[in-house]
Amino acid sequence: MIDVLGWELDAARAALEAAGRRVEVTETRTTRRVRLAGALRVVRQRETAEGTVALVVTRERYEPPGPQDG
Q1: Does 3 map to a domain?
Q2: What are 21-62's pLDDT values in tens digits?
Q3: How far is it, in rounded angstroms, from Cα 46 to Cα 55?
């Protein structure tokens, strides 16, 4: 299986699908009050069934909340 850890989601999905894999995506995020910014990146990858890869993704960075965020 192709190692796509750290890749942007679109590139990871394209590479895995080109290799004949089905892709399932789950987004994870912090419970802290922050703004999420940047591209979605793969932080976990595992094969869940033959031909299926589960990816966990998150935003590249968290930014402190601004005054408009409460």
Answers
A1: no
A2: 999 999 998 787 778 888 999 999 999 988 999 999 999 877
A3: 7
Residue 70 lies in a domain: no
Range of the structural domain that residue 51 is part of: 9-64
Core vs surface per residue 1-11: b (16+ CB within 10 A) or e: eeebeebbbee
Tell me the C-alpha to C-alpha distance, in Å, between residue 4 and each of 27, 64, 65.
15, 28, 30
The total number of structural domains in the chain stands at 1
Q: Which two three-digit tokens encode residue 49?
A: 């069934």
Backbone angles phi, psi at 17, to 5 degrees: -65, -35
pTM of this structure: 0.82
Report yes or no on 25 lying in a domain: yes
Give dist(CA 27, CA 18) in Å, integer: 22
